[in-house]
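Appendix B. Raw example, untouched.
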Amino acid sequence: MAKTPTEDGRRPRSTAKEVAVWTLLGLLILGLGGFGVTSFSGGITKVASVGNIDVTADDYARALQARVRDMSQQVGQQISMQQALAFGIDKQVIQSVITRAALDNEAERVGISVGDAAVASRITAMDNFKGASGEFDREAYRFTLERSNLTETQFETNLRRDVSRQLLQGAVGGGFVAPKAMTDTLFAWAGERRGFSMLRLVEADLATPVPAPTEADLKAHYDANLDRFTKPEAKRITYVSLLPEAIAKDQPVDEAMLRKLYQERINEFVIPERRIVERLVYPDQAQADAAKAALDGGTPFEKLVADRGLTLDAIALGDIAKSELGAAGEPVFAAAEGGVIGPLQTDLGPALFRVVSVLGAEETTFEAARDTLAIEFQMDAARRLIAGRVEEIDDLLAGGATLEDLAKDAGLALATLDFVPGKPGDTTIEGYPDFRAAAEAVQAGDFPQAIVLDDGGVVALRLDEIVPAAPIPFDEAKAAVAEDWRKDAVSKALAARAAEIKAAVEGGAAIRSFGIVDVTPETARNGFVADAPETLLAEVFKLPEGGVQVIAADGFTAVVQLDRILPAATEGKDAVAMRDALTAQAAQAIAGDAFAAFTGALTAEAGITLDQGAINAINTSLP
């Protein structure tokens, strides 16, 4: 059958086992992430030992796969196991599982454990094990663990270890307090502010315009910056596609169906008159009558609202139709824009209504809407036609048909492109996330599959070859070279001008005498300056009072003068909040260091046995 959109561009799996895998993710904080890994055979039972605690092959494999999933989510694309290993993820994971084993070994040594009642309490509180009634369901518990290749004993043992490990970790890492001298120093540094003046330079500030480049200038620039004019390595991909927009115009249009569709969606095309209305409700008729009398006597409606302890936002009904106002609809819609009427009876009590704005009725005739409806009708027909052919396309591919066969015999469009992983493409097909995911994942020798796209289209692709990176010929790149040369030339000229201004300001000239200056009275280290590079404030905070600096970045050149240094504010809610946050962060950092030292000592004392061969075998066996 055809592939439906998935993250990795491969055929979806729908087994209960995988549902259980994802359901159990997150059940435990450290020890039980990533259930559902198939047990390893071939004699591999453990990858390491710390003291009396073994790190099993499944423990390591689950932790490794969970870490790869996390990394994939962080970067926004699927990371293969080979890529993860190249990043050294396996070394991070083995260190993590060894640390957990060292804690388990120490907890066992000192006799830290939790009773059956505590374990049972945790299990019965887990949503994954609750039935339709919302209570713990023994059968759901058994079924979920069975589908995850876990016995109740294994699960409960791991849970007991996890809770014990948390107790030990809390005992070691708790109770640390950051020294006052440390927090004072951090607060003084983090809370400092700066006031500065900035003169931003643009090309118009140059006394002499940048001259046009000669052919020799361009050729020299091309040769010196060849990396800027080089096509990156790409995957040459051949693909066939059948897209709704490509065949929609050929689909017949049924006038009767269009008229029926128009009537079904008549509320989109015939919009009755509406009002933007405010409603001020009173507890009883007497108070409502008194308010109306005050209004007629000249009291502003806004004051009546304030007297009720309300705001205009609180009494706004928004854009509303006559039918939505009930009995008040007729008089409200008879009022002019800006008029206040009432009191009128409502479900909430007597109320005054103000008509803020009158929105006239709108009608789009069938004739005016026909073309839009026809396009939608044809696109829907195209999607249904494609959906009916997906299985046929998939069967042809499974039977050995090539992409060229599909183009010739099944009427699909055949094309080739050079796909650069990780970069946006400029073709229509590269705009489809599912195509890009499949193109990222495809390898030499993979058989094409029918991939259903998010708009109902279908595509199949094949990797033809890897096109190595290569310089773009000078004549072909000449326009880009000229643009890049000019950008560099302007940047150099602005840098030279900025250096002249800096020298003059340091010699006593006023920075504002060279042009319009942007003044920032004060800002914190984590402040924001519009249209400036992120490095600006970091450089500003390095300057002494009165210091001058040239700040240069891509497309940005400025001269900055530090006007004043302001110490950290010691009073007010913000200052207290900052000090408390820094104190907590410092204590957390100290606790983290202490915990790392503690686990390191535990590991060294208990002794580690590491089976690198088993680790390598697992690394190469995982997809």
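End of appendix B.
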